[in-house]
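thread: overnight batch results

M.L. [08:02]
morning all. the overnight job finished for the chain we discussed friday. pasting input first so we're all looking at the same thing
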Amino acid sequence: MRFYRGAVAATLLATSLSWAGFAAAQSYHVVDHWKIGGQGGWDYLLSDDAAHRLYVTHNSRVEVLDTNTGKVIGAVTGLKSTHGVALNPDGKTGYASDGAGNAIIVFSRADFSVLATVPAGTNPDGITFEPVTKTVWAFNGRSKNVSVMDTSSNTIVATTDLPGKPEFPQADGRGSVFVNIEDKNEIVKLDAKTHQAVATWPLTGCESPSGLAIDRKGHRLFSVCDGNKMAVMDYESGKLLGLASIGDSPDAAGFDPKTGVAFSSNGGDATLTIVDAKKPGFPVLQSVKTAKGARTMAFDAEKGRVYLVTAQFGPAPAPSAAAPRPRPTVLPDTFEVIVVGR
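M.L. [08:03]
and the structure it wrote out:
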């Protein structure tokens, strides 16, 4: 019996050590840096998992990278200031919001040439493709409305007013579009067929919601907010399910349906927060150190990777009436993608 107990204890210890090693191997960490270079600021990025491409809005261009190699393979050029990218499931066409150009840019995914420039509202920012109606929704930050474009004709078919400044949108794939309203701490639900807002839900405890991720199977939305919070909402009922703790100054979110974890990219404290969305209270699993300014991200569900972008910074210019809190200058040719994986 003594030998048996010893053998069992040894087996349990070996199993424990094996599991500890497995857990450590599965922890997220920075696995690569992909240099892009160039000049200027950036905003959202989007992973085309099936085509192994990453679209990165960068100043007046959309950079396109091969996610197998990390190399830049092309760019959509000729824009004034890019914010977001959406993709048509046809595999042929993409769309970018040109903020300073007040337009939706339609581009070819074969050679990245511009196919059309469609006038939108003032300063289109977040953008998404809605598959049921085959429309593109560009959310206009300054005019506080959304421009809905029919992709068969590349024409605006509706302009819908919103209760405040829209930030990032998500489509559920079943005819609804959701968007964070930054200055009202709300989420608006829109009907893709009528182009009308059908519900407005408060994000209590969530200040200035920006990035938004979606769990389509679980019918949940993840809004990242100032004050180090991620709001989790049931998008069928509009019920707030809870607030997770995240890092400082987030601007984008992601969700992995395979593992049930949610991500928040936090530019203020240079972290990527990983939240367990399967458990009550939404506990933090890990906080990965990234780099200053890495506030936006995209999740690649096929590779299980998170892509973030940032650059190195110089001193901030002197405050002025037009810019009382100026951002630091971006040093030329330092722009890069940070790859986080397991």
